[in-house]
Amino acid sequence: MASPEIDALTQALARLPGLGPRSARRAVLHLLKRRETALAPLLAALDAVNERLVTCSTCGNVDTNDPCGVCSDPRRDGRALCVVEEVADLWALDRSRLFPGRFHVLGGKLSALEGIRPEDLAIDALVRRIEAGGIDEVVLAMNATLEGQTTAHYLAERIERFPVRITQLAHGLPVGGELDYLDEGTLAQALRARRPVA
Amino acid sequence: MASPEIDALTQALARLPGLGPRSARRAVLHLLKRRETALAPLLAALDAVNERLVTCSTCGNVDTNDPCGVCSDPRRDGRALCVVEEVADLWALDRSRLFPGRFHVLGGKLSALEGIRPEDLAIDALVRRIEAGGIDEVVLAMNATLEGQTTAHYLAERIERFPVRITQLAHGLPVGGELDYLDEGTLAQALRARRPVA
Ligand SMILES: [Zn+2]
Ligand SMILES: [Zn+2]
Question: Which residue stretches are annotated zinc finger (C4-type) (chains A, B) (predicted)?
Answer without folding.
Answer: 56-71
